[in-house]
């Protein structure tokens, strides 16, 4: 018998998986956004990165601490560079030429994130790199350098102990505030080649060591092997995007299916399939919308939406319903 040509990662189903009543908060690298987008697409109650993309564990811990304390920012937390206002605690998606608008956007997301975290059932964290940039004049680790001159920063690689000690306090606080919170850790498979090939490997190794240490110390902290799926199961450049650093759409879909098997309640798979059909119907562009056949098509979609809402009150299909209602010929 021929040996298999790949190393498949065995994924087990977890206890108390995510369903449509669950509130799921994602924090971390762009891979967190990829997985979070899949839950949003499937209409789960999801909040993704209220600080924008975060790459290192220290910045993720800082962000969680801000959310726990619900610390709103002031203009003193911002800095101006080349006519743009930024925050060293936030991704550049929050940057703005208007200081007031920048601050309002930041605080709106902090309030949203703080309120969401209090009721969250799952917190999914993706660590991207152990390399951090410390602002020399304050010694603080920044979440984003915002293209400020490199001379203003010191580049340091966090140790396993640094990460565990910083995250420990945050996890202990979170579990006091929300005892039912389930935390899922993963290490991003995105390669940080700008750090250097060897440095990237050292970074990922450090993150893996720290992650498994945290899993061993907290009963409600689990690990999802996205890094291993990409590195060992999908061990081929055809599973990378054109930059050869990020997973391709095929790889993201494959890892999502593994996550689904592990962490999504099988009882909601049917609803997920129905939602996918409704979204596909939304993308359908009829040549003759006034025909009887298309009007029957619209009625079927509205009936499907109604049935889903009756079964799962948490599913928000308002946009889809409005779309089909506007096409009806009363």
Structure description:
This protein has helices at 30-41, 57-69, 99-119, 160-177, 197-217, 226-233, 249-263, 269-282, 292-311, 318-325, and strands spanning 23-28, 45-48, 79-81, 84-86, 122-127, 131-135, 141-142, 153-157, 182-187, 221-223. By secondary structure, it is α/β, with parallel strands linked by helices. It has 2 domains: 23-264, 3-Layer(aba) Sandwich (Rossmann fold), CATH 3.40.50; 272-325, no CATH class. The strands form 3 sheets. A 5-stranded parallel beta sheet has the order 2-1-5-9-10, with helices on both faces. It has a 3-stranded antiparallel beta sheet with strand order 7-6-8, with no helix packed on it. Strand 3 (79-81) and strand 4 (84-86) form a beta hairpin. Helix 2 (57-69) packs across helix 3, helix 4 runs parallel beside helix 5 (197-217) and helix 9 packs antiparallel against helix 10 (318-325). The protein is globular, with a radius of gyration of 22 Å.
List keywords for this structure.
Rossmann fold; 2 domains; 330 residues; three-stranded antiparallel beta sheet; alpha/beta
Encode the helix/strand succession as letters: EHEHEEHEEEEHEHEHHHHH
Structural class assignment: alpha/beta
**What percent strand?**
5-15%
CATH fold assignment of the largest domain: Rossmann fold
Task: Assign an overall shape.
Answer: globular
Gap between N and C termini:
64 Å
Number of strands: 10
Helix content: 40-55%
Multimeric state = single chain
CATH class of the largest domain: Alpha Beta
Q: How are the strands of the biggest sheet laid out side by side? A: 2-1-5-9-10
**If classified by CATH, what would the architecture of the largest domain be?**
3-Layer(aba) Sandwich
Largest sheet, in brief, is: 5 strands, parallel
Task: Return the average pLDDT rounded to an integer.
Answer: 93
Query: What would CATH call the homologous superfamily of the largest domain?
Result: SGNH hydrolase
**Annotation field: number of helices:** 10
